[in-house]
Design goal:
The complex is a heterodimer of chains A (413) and B (1006). Chain A has an 8-stranded mixed sheet, sandwiched between helices. With 413 residues, chain A is α/β, with parallel strands linked by helices. Chain A is built from 13 helices and 15 strands. Chain A is 31% helix and 24% strand. Chain B is an alpha/beta fold. Among the domains of chain B are: 92-103 and 112-139 and 153-273, Metal-dependent hydrolases (TIM Barrel, Alpha-Beta Barrel), CATH 3.20.20.140; 431-527, Quinohemoprotein amine dehydrogenase alpha subunit, domain 2 (Lipocalin, Beta Barrel), CATH 2.40.128.120; 556-619 and 911-941, Urease, subunit C, domain 1, CATH 2.30.40.10; 622-699, no CATH class; 731-910, Metal-dependent hydrolases (TIM Barrel). In chain B, 23% of the residues lie in helices and 26% in strands. Chain B is built from 25 helices and 43 strands. In chain B, strands 1, 2, 3, 4, 5, 15, 16 and 17 form an 8-stranded mixed sheet that branches. Chain B starts with 10 loop residues before the first helix and ends in a 26-residue tail after the last strand. The chains are: A alpha/beta (413), B alpha/beta (1006).
Amino acid sequence: MKAILFFSILLLHFSSMAQSILLLHGTAHIGNGTVMESAAIGVVNDRIVFVKNSLTQTFNNKDWDTIINCNGQHFYPGLVSANNTLGLTEIDAVRATRDFNDVGDWNPHVRAQVAYNVESKVVETVRTNGVLLVQATPRGGWISGSSAVMKLSGWNWEDATVLADDGIHLNWPYDRNTYQAQKRAIYAFFEMAKTYAMAREAQASDLRLEAMKACFKGQKRVYIHAESIQQIVDVIDFAAAFQLPYPVIVGGHDAHLVGAKLRDSKIPIMLSRIHSLPQREDELTYLPYQMPALLKQQGISFCIQNDGDMQPMNTRNLPFQAGTTMAYGLSEEEALKAISLSVCQIMGIDKDYGTLEVGKKATFFVSKGPALDMRSNQLTTILVDGKFVSTSNFQEQLYLKYRQKYKDEAKSE
Amino acid sequence: MKARILIFLLASFVSAQLFAQFGPDNGVKASTPKYILIQHAIIMVKPGQTLQDADLLLQNGKIVQVGKNLKQDGAVALDYTGKVLVPSFIDMYSSVGLDPVTFKNNGWRPQLTSNKEGAYYWNEAVHPELTAAAAYKSTENSSEQLQQSGFGFVLTHHMDGIVRGSAAFVALGQAEVHKQILAPQAAQVYSFSKGASQQTYPSSQMGAIALLRQALYDLDYYSKNKASLPYSVSLSEWESQRNLPIIFKTDDKLEILRAQKIANEFKTNFLYIGSGNEYAIANELKGFKIVLPLVFPEAYEVNDPYLAREIPLSELKHWESAPSNAMLLKKEGLDIALTSFGLKNAEQFWTALRKAMARGLAPSDAMAALTTVPANWMGLSAQVGTLESGKLASFSVFSADPFAYEAQLLETWSLGEARYWKSANTVQLLGNYTLRIADATYELVVTGSPEKPQGKVLLKTASDTLSAKATIQLKQQDVSIQFLALNTPNPQLIQLHAKALKNGLVLEGEGTDAKGAWFHWSAIQQQTTPVSPPIALKPDTTVYGQVWFPNMAFGTTAKATQETLVFKNATVWTNEKEGVLKGADVLVVDGKIKQVSRQNIAVPAGARVVDATGLHLTSGIIDEHSHIAISRGVNEGGQAISAEVSIADVVNPDDIDIYRQLAGGVTAAQLLHGSANPIGGQSALVKLKWGVSAEDMLIDNAPHFIKCALGENVKQANWGDFNTVRFPQTRMGVEQVFYDGFYRAKAYQKEWDAFKAGKTKVAPRVDLELEVLSDILRSSCFITCHSYIQSEINMLMHVADSMGFRINTFTHILEGYKVADKMYKHGVAGSTFSDWWAYKFEVNDAIPYNAALMSEQGVVVCINSDDAEMGRRLNQEAAKTVKYGGLSEEEAWKLVTLNPAKALHLEAQMGSVKAGKAADLVLWTANPLSIEARVSMTMVDGVVYYEEKQQTEKQAQNEQERTRILSLMLAANERGEASKTPQKKVKKHFHCDTLGEEATETENSH
């Protein structure tokens, strides 16, 4: 324990000056399903310049500003938490800190990016478990707003931004009594928005419809939150009716029951929190744990997300949610992919993030042991876009402070 | 049902003027016949005894004699040939004749005290002073549907509140109102439902239970010490009802068992009004007297499979079994009565009753359940229940035996007065007539039923037979017929009216033609169509499913039993000094661990051998803080101190989360009261068992625990701006609530000590709240206290120290790491979350290293769930302490097994794998702290309740049962039975801060 801390403090010291970094002799979990034993990763400025076998290569120490020998440790791409209010709220019960749900049913124009608090104390405790990117996402209404993909490190929301306004979030209706009417209202809104978007002549400016424009042109995704079969099949029809370039289903509790249809539609699923109870009394006790394997078997593209109770603070357990699926049909590398590359692919940022591959942003971490198991998720190095980030947080500082108090008192007795 | 033609043929003779109490008559005194003799009837005297062609002699509203060929000089004789007389039914649960209960809205602010002006009991839900007789209004019209169902007597009461007051036994019908009230104080009625009271207390079922118990103690105290106590209207009235039978209204099968505990405590008996699902625990209800409702759940519309899958199997099974409730309870040997409560009209009543009979409720049992059984239970057998001499002349007249045929109710007689609902068919028109009008001869063909004849008129011409539809109405003997003339070019209306003579053989009268001219006509019957006999009730021959334990998904067809079992070659986490044993065998016999050995254990005869090679065996997880398996409210938040309530009173064994926790290796839990107030309620220490009763889940001789709470929840900080009334609203106030409670408890103890020592003569009032606080002071009740920040933790330890007891456990205790040394010194355990924080202000300094830091200081530390989801992966939560703070794996594992056993004073019987301890064992597929560990098998007291390998089979069994019942439901849909649309039901959960009786979907804020 002492050694790790020393190490991380040392890193803090030269955090700003590192231009080139070489990490040696770790097991690289690439994030795309493959693994490379004894890997070396080269970073120049903010990008990965190589991922090679460290035993068959020789490196010139002088070429590198920083060399870290990670003997026996594990390299992972930064984990990505989709569909999350992290950074938009600090304390769930304190209204003053809740910045994720605004007034109104149709709010595509409200933007998570500008409310994202990069200095959130919660963010700091999530980062130290390996989650380095988040899709900060508004809640409420039929269209909650526009989410943004953000880094868990930065000086302000501008430099923390990976992708602003990456998509709008549409909450598909579920109430049986009003279902048809609400579905109609959604169709009507989208018809209006599409007409506005496709009009050749400039229209009178409309904030809502402006925010929708990119959804029809492929620059913005449409995240549709839907769980039941009825909702899912209706969402498939809806996406087809408006020829949405990038529809995504968020939730998808019943997705395994309509596999063929989903596969044909090519709509990916951002799967509900793994650590959740079955939604129905009669469902298999561990259905939520089995869902990733069920979707994999049916060839549906999916990733895992963490929406639910106390989601900001719970984001630090994202690696363990993925890890849990290892006992229910996914391999370790598949489980990792579901919270790294797959998320980035679905959100459209896989060119820069999601794997340990040449050309990608150097946003990754080093853990003493397998990071998807809580016992061995112990981070020794974190890089976000090539910059070192502390592996400690205020909670560890409090721990050390009080531990020291007891040590001092024990000595004086 | 629309035939409301009330022909008061006899009413003027029999009317009740005679009994008007002392009021003057307007005109001369009304006349009544001295005797009425009903002759040649079929008399169902009592269940199992029917007289054919019998007579009934009535006088002054009573039965003088029943038998054959009765004679009485001066009797008005009535011929009832073919009609069936059935004793009037008795409904024990009704509010007929009383004004409906009004619900007042007192605004948003909580109402802590009673708003009733006057010398009443302090809680508005306890109102024994309400007497039904005083408020009763005649029910001549309001009880029409009851009368048409066959009921002649009801027990009516104010259907509201927990102690509802006295019920009156009344006769329905048109008798003068004084006469209707047969017994003004016939019973008293209790329930667990608060009703219209807006007072905050009680807000939960356990609160209702505690309130009823306290009120009963208060009644006892009042009646012993009246002279020296201030007058109470409520208690004084209640005292006068003490010898009356007690009716207890329940809303669920489990409430019967809960109420019976109170009956036992106060050495009394209750008659229960059931809720309809008693069959599921029929074997636990032997000897109980239950009045069963006949309200059966409606089918769902199941033609859309997307929607059909939203119906839980528990509801499907209940839909299937509910009509068999009466039959299944009879089968268990129970006496049952029936109530029409909840049914809208007579048609619904008879449909439901016939359904119950079709399912195998014997006709004589059905009749008894409506007559002799309730009469007997209420001690009124001398007056009502049968048609024997000396009893009240109240009976219904049917067209046939209503328990055997689809009979029509024709008349109801109440206290000797008749009311006619349907005309008796004295005239039989069905057949063919020769109809003569002037010089024309037609053929008139009458078909249909005797009640609703339909006609056709035929005219034979040389070449053809002309035909026209004829409308026929029959009222007693008056027949009217209309048809369009057949031999005229334009339709011409012919209208006929006649008297039916000679039982319909001859019709004779006048008519008008299209021009309005009058003529004489007649018709003579040439051929009679025999009347078809009444339709016999058919038994339902469908094969129905079995009741499961519990009666829902993953239930079993037979209760699981103990096994003799050997785990072979396991990696055993003993939690003892032996540590983790590799390649060990464990023998389980009679629910206990018999032997743990690294040597080969010989397999006893008949034992099951489990090859545990590569698997890990541990003692079961013990969740120190859980809110699953609780009925109707986890918080009694109505008052700052509610020590009198107990979760043990409201354990719900039918919660699917029990099965889910077993699937996560949890074998025992402390079911805690919530954290809505500083001194909450007592805990239930349970073993998680599936398909057993609540009583069987409770751990025998378990230590007594109570939940206390500090901080934001108890000061209602996050409950909205209207919740600023109840004390305390600050941490300063919280301290004082504790001091106040304990000082009062000390004074209470002193009073009782003095009495017990013979220094005082009068036994002090029993105060259930102070009893428990005294137990805390005596260290026979242990505190588990919800806590977050160090100041409040420190404060409560000071309170305890100054009062001479010890806080047993701080739960949550997220800042425990800041005062771990003080905690160790005080000797308190810490039961915490592995890593939760950021959900409210007081958890800002919560750190996941808390468990490790407290452990290092010597505190007994547990990791708990407080959450049904997390509860089933506490192994993962324990594993986090390896990451945060570097505990060893064995230490980490003890946080969810041995340490909670210690904190709960249960370590002598559970918490480790050691010979002699309970066989609460879990077999894991891997190191239980590993992210890849799954539960392979969970056993509690030697009974295997969960096996992973059975899950596919279980699911198939669930699906098969669903499909079977859905096909029955679909058939019901097709028959046109009433149905409703399924809605997705998200299972709701109780959390620390859930208020009221219903679980919620809101976020957990602990």
